[in-house]
Amino acid sequence: MRGPTVLARPGDSLLRIAEANQVPLESGCQMGVCGADPVRILAGAENLTPPSVDERVALRRLALPADCRMACTARVRGHVTVALARAGAPPSTSVRADATVPERLRSSSRRRVVIIGNGVAGVTAAVELRERDPDIDITILGAEPYEFYNRMVINKLLPGSAQIDRLALLPSDWAASREIRHLRGIAARSIDRVRREVQTDAGDTLPYDNLLLATGAACDVSAIEEHRKAGTFVMRTIDDALRLREYIAERRCRRAVVVGAGLLGLEVASSIREMGSRVYVIETAAWPLSRQLDRTAGTLVQQLMMDLGIKILIGAGASALLGADHVEEVQLADGQRLKADIVLLATGIVPNVALAERAGLAIDHGVIVDDRMATSDSRIFAAGDVAVYRGSTPGLWLVAMEQARVAAINMLGGDCRYDARVPPTRLKVSGLDVLSVGNVTRTGGHVQQICVDDGDPRQYRKLFLRTGKASAAIVVGHQALHELVSEAVRANRDVSDVIPSLQRGDWTVLQT
To answer: pTM of this prediction?
Structure first.
């Protein structure tokens, strides 16, 4: 069936074009990483920007053919014909996703890898292992009953702009088609390091030669004593989003307070606002997104969120949640009180280490890993939000993917080292284009900063150079530059010869 013909500005992404023309197309990380928006290019592939490294990895994970692209990062430079569906993927087989491993893979002589956790770290590791070794026995288990889904956009379940089945990032047969045993809705109960066995809460015993912990993290609510009071929520899973949506609908909530102005806090605040609630966001730092933005950019984001009807109170912390049988007010540290029908806590993460701790692994907030992603037990690895590397747990999708890849290679006997660069992050709020890439807080030493004034108070961009090389950047607005800037920082590109052009505002020179 022939679809509509639409006009587009050069540099616009296929995703933005689809959204502007009310064409239903899921969005995710908007960096070509999660794989939420694959499209098939029927004609004009040469008129699209080339795929980034991250996009190529996502396409490979999805097992999509060569004529597919990620709509969020493919930008138009001429006429393009696109099929807006996953129809470009090979037909799925009818094998159930939780099918057992074929008999030939159960031989005790085969290497056995057990992966605990079926989020991005666990699934990435499973796919990587199978691509590199067709013979190992792989079992992956996760406590949630859902297929591998896009956790970065579960807030879209609140206003109904996304459905559960549309959050899936892989075909339902992704595991069975790769001869991977996928145990959904089954959690690990204990690890016996001497016998090298995992006991599940279903009563199964899973022997392993290598084990990957990818158990993720929970919301850190330790600072809020009344966090169990009715009307108080977190947002980590599909079920969290469904419970919040049901509560808002049943109680007809009209006043919301979000504690924490990080990426999650602002994105959930936007979704709650779409449901018709008045939203306040409280943040102890001096500006929102203080880990990703400088003061100028953070203040601009605060103003842009205000334009969306979301008021951010900076330098404010929640000291108490007030109410009898359910939350009614939030008391701030300065004594001010905010009326609230619901409170959403987005106050950071705490790694899920209970299983590792009971097994006697070294713990420091999370499971301690080295640059091979190995724990204190050489047969056990960890990746993603549960892992602590050099004292840090970034809690980012790209970090989890890279750590899982490193762990998979090393579990197969390789020698791969994790490079702890700060990956790009984007604020996924409709109408706001905000990118941060690299360590924007590291400004001492030989760091040169190029800040461009475009004469538009709603836009801002700053590039950080270390010894003439692109090391970090902040971009508010200028959506067409996001991929270009991210790639330049990723490559640590030497731009010393084009600094005058960058200072004049011509950042197209970042293109190789």
So the answer is: 0.88
* DSSP tag of 456: -
Q: At what angle do helices 263-274 and 295-307 cross, to 10 degrees?
A: 10
Please state the φ and ψ torsions of residue 396, each to the nearest 5 degrees: -120, 145
- Cα 142 to Cα 129: distance, rounded to the nearest angstrom: 18
**Residue 118 CA neighbour count, 13 Å, CB half:** 28
- CB distance 305 to 288 below 8 Å: yes
Using alpha carbons, select from 75, 6, 43 the residue that is nearest to residue 486. Answer: 75
pLDDT in tens, 399-439: 999 999 999 999 999 999 999 888 899 999 988 999 999 99
Q: Which residues contact 85 (CB under 8 A, 6 or more apart)?
A: 39, 40
Q: What percent of the chain has pLDDT over 90?
A: 68
Q: What is the pLDDT of residue 88?
A: 36
Contact residues for 348 (Cβ-Cβ < 8 A; gap 6+):
219, 220, 260, 262, 395
CA–CA gap between residue 443 and residue 248 (Å, rounded) = 43
φ, ψ at 474 (rounded to 5°): -130, 130
- Region of 395 (left: φ > 0; alpha: ψ -120 to 50; beta: rest) is left
List the structure tokens of 423. Answer: 């990956």
Candidates 360, 476, 473; CA nearest to 427 is: 476
Per DSSP, the three-state class of 211 is: strand
Give the Cα-Cα-Cα angle 471, 296, 224 (nearest 5 degrees): 95
The token pair that represents 280 in the structure block: 């306040």
- Of 2, 479, 178, 81, the residue nearest 69 (C-alpha): 81
pLDDT at residue 441 in the model: 85
Show the 3-state SS of 217-265.
EEECCCCCCCCCCECEECCCCHHHHHHHHHHHHHHCCCEEEEECCCHHH
Beta-sheet pairing, 432-438 with 469-476: antiparallel
Residue 103 has pLDDT above 70, yes or no: no
Q: Report the distance separating Cα 353 and Cα 217, nearest Å.
A: 8
What the block records as the tokens of 124 is: 């990435």
Strands 460-466 and 447-452: antiparallel
Q: Which residues pair with 205 in a beta bridge?
A: 199
Burial of 465 (0-12, 13-18, 19+ CB in 10 A): buried
Element (H, E) at 504: helix 499-504
The pLDDT of residue 378: 97
| Whole-Å CA distances, 268 to 151, 247, 274, 290, 504 | 12, 15, 10, 17, 37
Determine the Cα–Cα distance for residues 114 and 510; give it in Å rounded to an integer. Answer: 43
Burial zone of 255 (CB within 10 Å; 0-12 exposed, 13-18 middle, 19+ buried): middle
